[in-house]
Amino acid sequence: MSKTFLITGVSTGLGLAIARRALAAGHRVAGTVRTEQHAAAFQALDPDRARAFILDLSDADRIDPTVRAAEAELGPIEVLVANAGYGLEGTFEESSMADLRHQFEVNVFGTVATVKAVLPGMRERRGGHIFVITSMGGHTTFPGLAFYEGSKHALEGITDTLAQEVTQFGVRVTAVAPGAFKTDWAGRSLVRAPRSIADYDALFDPIRARRQALAGQGIGDPDRAGDAILTLLDAEKPPVHVLLGSDALRLVTAGRQRVQDDFDAWEELTRSTDSTEGGVTVA
Length: 283
Fold this sequence. Notes:
It holds the Pfam family adh_short. The chain is an alpha/beta fold. Helix content is 47%, strand content 16%.
């Protein structure tokens, strides 16, 4: 059955691949882009079922009107793929507060505002599927990506909570955490904070050089990611959290084990803080 999608960030990368797969499957797709050139290219994919809308997620006041315009063109949004965002690379100490604010303005606040714009309609119609594209960095961490991974951890937590609240209305929510895909994320789409502290050279210079050298060479196939989204859309019981890519599975599993190792090693201390007089747990 044909559905109406809204996909943010369809100029390149995963957003474009997901949109192409959705169009090929017969769906209608409203996609957001940031330039007129990208808008024309996107609508040329399918003049009947593809519509492009200019939107920068940092412009919060434009998000709701853009969603309303998309619905006026193609009908009520039944599937949201909140994909738009960007990465900031830099050590914690060398990245500025302005860097942090803009990273969250786009990746978190812009994404949440987009979900808020489509959710009331889905709730009232008692149906819909919200996909939030996070990252394997929303489950584990790597040096030099503190602010980016912080934004993705925030989205994972928000999405998990949202899923628990709206399942009663027939609205499905899935946080999709990709690994490294053959996109330009680590190339021109990655903002790099300038280096200024020599103490980090030995740790971080090789990491930055490797990311630059391997940009666009990830193991993940964007078209297969698009197919995966359609598979999840058709699933009887889709997951709230899903990883895309064998690298994501390997690295997230290892990262979660490091956390579990800390919990296990300090279990006695953890339990020691309970009141000797008993009490009530939150759940």
